[in-house]
Backbone:
C-alpha cells in the first residue's frame, strides 16, 4: 500500500493545529481537576489511610487520576472534533481526499495524542506541587500514553460519528460508560480490596489495564500481567481501527 505522506502530514497538521488553539484549556482543566482529586482522595481520605500495598495512598491514587484525565481528554478531543465535522458536513470532503481510509482515521486521532502528552506535562506539574512526582519506568509510561491515546482516540471517532446531531450521546458515553469504568478499574483502590468472588470482573474492564500499567510506570507496583495489559489495549486499538476504517469505507452515518 502506497502512503500519501503529503496528504497524511497535512491532515495531521490540521488536527494538531486544532489542539494548539485550545492549549490553555487543555492544560488548565486537567490541572484543576487533578488537584481537586489529589486533595480529596490524597489528603482528606489519605489522612485516614496510611498505606495501600505498601505504597503511600496519595502516590497510589495519583496514577488513577493521571489515567482518568488522559482517557477523558483524548476521548473528548476526538469525539467532539468528529462530531463537529459531521455537523458542518466537512467530513464528507475528507472522504474525497486521495488518501487511504486508514491514513484518514489515524490523522483524526492526532489531536487526541497531542493532547494526551500536553496533559501529561500539566499533570507532572501537579505531581511536583503535591510531592508525588516519581517515575520508575518512563519508557513504559510513554508506551501506555500512546496506547491510551490511540484506543480512546479511535473510540472517540466512533462515538462522534454515532452521535449524529446530538451532544447528549457523547455525554452519555462519557458519563455512563467511561467514568464508571474508570472508578471501577482500580483508580482509587487496590483490586485486592474487593471481595474475592468479584475480583475477576475487573479483568473485563480495559481501563483497569490502563490504570495498572500507568501505576507500574510511576510506582513500580502492578496487580496484573503487564504483557496482558499491553496485549488487551493493542488488540482493542486494532479492532477499533478496523471498525473506524469500515465506517469510512461504507459511509455509515457520514453521507447525508
Residues:
Amino acid at each position: 500500500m502506497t502512503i500519501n505522506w503529503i496528504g497524511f502530514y497535512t491532515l495531521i497538521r490540521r488536527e494538531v493545529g486544532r489542539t494548539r488553539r485550545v492549549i490553555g484549556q487543555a492544560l488548565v482543566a486537567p490541572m484543576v481537576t487533578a488537584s481537586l482529586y489529589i486533595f480529596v482522595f490524597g489528603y482528606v481520605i489519605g489522612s485516614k489511610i496510611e498505606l495501600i500495598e505498601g505504597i503511600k495512598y496519595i502516590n497510589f491514587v495519583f496514577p488513577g487520576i493521571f489515567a482518568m484525565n488522559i482517557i477523558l481528554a483524548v476521548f473528548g478531543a476526538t469525539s467532539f472534533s468528529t462530531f463537529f465535522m459531521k455537523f458542518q458536513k466537512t467530513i464528507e470532503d475528507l472522504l474525497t481526499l486521495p488518501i487511504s481510509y486508514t491514513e484518514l482515521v489515524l490523522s483524526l486521532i492526532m489531536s487526541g495524542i497531542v493532547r494526551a502528552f500536553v496533559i501529561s506535562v500539566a499533570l507532572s506539574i501537579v505531581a511536583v506541587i503535591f510531592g508525588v512526582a516519581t517515575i520508575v519506568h518512563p519508557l513504559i509510561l510513554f508506551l501506555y500514553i500512546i496506547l491510551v491515546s490511540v484506543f480512546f482516540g479511535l473510540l472517540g471517532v466512533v462515538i462522534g460519528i454515532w452521535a449524529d446531531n446530538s451532544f447528549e450521546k457523547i455525554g452519555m458515553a462519557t458519563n455512563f460508560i467511561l467514568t464508571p469504568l474508570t472508578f471501577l478499574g482500580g483508580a482509587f483502590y487496590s483490586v485486592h480490596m474487593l471481595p474475592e468472588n468479584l475480583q475477576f470482573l475487573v479483568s473485563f474492564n480495559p481501563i483497569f489495564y490502563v490504570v495498572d500499567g500507568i501505576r507500574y510506570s510511576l510506582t513500580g507496583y502492578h496487580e496484573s500481567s503487564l504483557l496482558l495489559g499491553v496485549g488487551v489495549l493493542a488488540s482493542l486499538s486494532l479492532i477499533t481501527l478496523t471498525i473506524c476504517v469500515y465506517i469510512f469505507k461504507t459511509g455509515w452515518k457520514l453521507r447525508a
Observations:
- The chain has one domain: 5-188+198-250.
- Residues 57-87 form the longest helix (31 residues).
- Strands lie at 51-52, 55-56.
- The radius of gyration is 19 Å.
